Amino acid sequence: MRRFADLSPSPRTILTPGPVEVDPRVLRAMSHSILGQFDPEFTSLMNETMQMLRETFVTANVWAYPVDGTSRSGIEAVLVSLISPGDRVLVPIYGRFGHLLHEIADRCGAEVATIEKEWGYVFDPEEVIAAIDDFRPAFVVMVHGETSTGRAQPLADIGRACRERGVLLIVDAVATIGGVPVETDGWMLDAVVGGTQKCLSIPAGMAPITYNAAAERKALARKRIEKGLLGAAAEPGDVLRPIRSNYLDLSQLQDYWSPLRLNHHTEMTSMLYALREGLRLVLEEGLEARFVRHRLHERALMAGLEAMGMRLYGDPSCKLTVVTCVLIPDGVDGESVRSMLLEAFGIEIASSFGPLRGRIWRIGTMGYSCNRKNVLHLLGAFEATLVRHGVTLPAGEAVQAALTVYESGEQP
Amino acid sequence: MRRFADLSPSPRTILTPGPVEVDPRVLRAMSHSILGQFDPEFTSLMNETMQMLRETFVTANVWAYPVDGTSRSGIEAVLVSLISPGDRVLVPIYGRFGHLLHEIADRCGAEVATIEKEWGYVFDPEEVIAAIDDFRPAFVVMVHGETSTGRAQPLADIGRACRERGVLLIVDAVATIGGVPVETDGWMLDAVVGGTQKCLSIPAGMAPITYNAAAERKALARKRIEKGLLGAAAEPGDVLRPIRSNYLDLSQLQDYWSPLRLNHHTEMTSMLYALREGLRLVLEEGLEARFVRHRLHERALMAGLEAMGMRLYGDPSCKLTVVTCVLIPDGVDGESVRSMLLEAFGIEIASSFGPLRGRIWRIGTMGYSCNRKNVLHLLGAFEATLVRHGVTLPAGEAVQAALTVYESGEQP
Question: Which GO terms describe its biological process (chains A, B) (predicted)?
Answer without folding.
Answer: glycine biosynthetic process, by transamination of glyoxylate
